[in-house]
Amino acid sequence: MRPVYMISGGITKFAKAHQDKDFRLMVKEAYDYALRDVPRFSKDMIDGAVGSYFSDHFTRQLKAASMVQDYLGLCPKPSKRVEGGGATGGLCFQSAWEAVASGRMNCCLAFGFETMSRVNTWKGNEFIALASDTNFDFPVGGFYSGYYAMMVQRHMHEFGTTVEQMAMVSIKNHANACYNPYAQKAKRLTIKQVRESPMVATPLTMEDICTMSDGAAVCFLASEAVASKVCNHPVKISGVGSGSDAMRMADRPHGKVILLPHEREADYRELKYPGVHSFRGGRMAAKLAYEMAGISNPGKELSFIELHDAYTSSEIQTYEDLGLCKYGEGGHFVESGMPFLPAVDYGLELPDRGLLPVNPSGGLLACGHPVGATGLMQAVFAFWQLQGSVEKHLGNGKLQVKNAKRGLIHSHAGTGTYITVSIMEAV
Amino acid sequence: MENKGTIVYGIDPLVIRDHYEIDYLHSYAEDSPFFIGLTKGKLLGSRCTACGYTYSTPRAHCMECGEPTIWHQLPLTGRIHTFTTCHYGGEAFLKETPFTLILVEFADADTLFLSRLKGMQPDQVHIGLPVVARFAKVPSFKVTDVWFEPADEE
Q: N or C: which end of chain B has fewer CB within 10 A?
């Protein structure tokens, strides 16, 4: 395998609906933005593309990625579609990485999109729930927020995690988004407002859950030769990992924790793992990515993280899977203030504020979650952080993590059925 | 074909109504005995013939070792492993809200079973609560032919 670099990225504003542009035009906008950002790069240097979108139900257009390929003028170059639920974008990013790492391509375009506004929110929830076992799970009341609510109820039972800790995640990500013009749902919240917003599935309220969106994102990945020729500040993708778990939450086996280098078996003597409180696939993804990138203590060796916070609860669960803290300590981790940004006012008391910012962009909770674009959106924000170009792209530098050296992006499907972790580094 | 007209929601951009529906022939295939079991008041899990791993939600092959499983009758009582009350849902279930989902754990089984809890106020539900299976008198041949209600403490 040879080194792979990200050389440019682009995104559309994520919005409830973009009725004035279809998925082809959304991708085209993000793509043109990314091309403009690397003037020495040209379209004929692209060897092929990987497209990602989650649902044929939402788009009501099979082979939609082919329509993007021709709209961008990339025919007859190689192309394919990658689909993996909520992790679709992260899988697409890694598929493009594979194309370059293997030597098959010198430059591969990763593009992703979702058009979720063609159906109402509750039909949309029904489509998403079809990504659960249709014999045993969907007919009982197919609803992902219900599945995540059951997971966090167990997390609260095992570890004492509180709804106030979850609300702090919501406050953080929505406030960060106030400085991100691409975000869909920027706002200032208090713990009381999060808890008093309409209950969706106990204990998750509307402000604990991300929204559906229309949007697109693209990344250009390239070999060292191409990157050094066209890009002043390429970012190296130094580690990729992915993992999986059983489709049915009911089937999650109880075994031993998959340990990271800085953990010991004695830390988890009593813990039945993963149960329904943790994501074994996320831990596997992190372990593989850390091994490739040479990371032995993630909490100390990462500058920031963009993770898949479809729910406030899953952000807390994911801190633990990624080894930012031990299993069971995710609630305390958010209370410590570590995942908050130093420069943003949250109206909260945060003792260790800003030591390891998580979702400086606002994450899924505030940016929105146009599924096929989401994992690539994270890559674009992480790319800008590591280039130190946040101010240039967002119009303000409030979200820029100072001296960002190494970032982690995390994309997550189902109730943890596919998960990707990729490590990106400034060079 | 009869022209019933097209509903137009807007003209800039042009947005129209596009209706779509389909009937599937949904075969339960190797899972079929479970659904037949529900019509007889039985909860059928499965057990691995090689390693003995016991599934509360059945599967024909063991996901631990890959060997075939055999049908295994579960007790009709278990305990709540976790729960939630849904105040919203997918469109198909929206009219049934609020409803309570539970994962049930059974003695001597390694995995759980997703079902609905009925007959209890949502704020009374808690982890560890004993529950008992109830079955539909008129089967719909869906997993909702079984649900759970609170059982007396043993």
A: N
Q: Nearest-CA residue of chain B relative to A152?
A: B82
Cβ-proximal residues to A56 (8 Å cutoff; 6+ apart), any chain: A62, A64
Structure confidence at residue A90 as a pLDDT band (50, 70, 90)? very high
**A201/B86 CB distance under 8 A:** yes
Which residue in this structure is represented by tokens 């329509």?
A: A67
Closest C-alpha among A208, A237, A377, A244 to residue A306: A377
Report pLDDT for A253.
Answer: 85
Give me the residue label for tokens 């919501």.
Answer: A170
Q: Which residue stretches of A177-311 are H helix?
A: 191-196, 224-230, 280-293, 298-301
Mean pLDDT of A69-96: 98
Residues of chain B with C-beta less than 8 angstroms from the C-beta of A166: none
Interface test with A, best of B62, B63, B93 (most A CBs within 10 A): B93
Q: Cβ separation of A122 and B110 shorter than 8 Å?
A: no
Please, which residues 25-84 of chain B have a Cβ atom closer than 8 Å to chain A? 26, 28, 31, 55-57, 59, 63-64, 81-84
HEC string of A133-177?
A: CCCCCHHHHCCHHHHHHHHHHHHHHHHCCCHHHHHHHHHHHHHHH
Structure confidence by residue, pLDDT tens digits, A404-419: 999 999 999 999 999 9
pLDDT digits (tens, 9 = 90+) for A260-289: 999 999 999 989 999 999 999 999 999 999
Q: Are A122 and B94 in contact (CB under 8 A)?
A: yes
User: Is this complex scored with an ipTM above 0.90?
Assistant: yes
In this structure, which amino acid lies at residue B136?
Answer: A
CB contact under 8 Å between A146 and B89, yes or no, is: yes
| A201, A246, A251: residue with CB nearest B87 | A201
A140 with B122: Cβ contact below 8 A = no
Q: How far is B15 from chain A (nearest CA, A)?
A: 8
Please write the tens of the pLDDT for every residue from A335-375: 999 999 999 999 999 999 999 999 999 999 999 999 999 99
CB A412 within 8 A of CB A419: yes
How far, in Å, CA of A39 to CA of A170, rounded? Answer: 38
| Whether residue A239 has pLDDT greater than 60 | yes
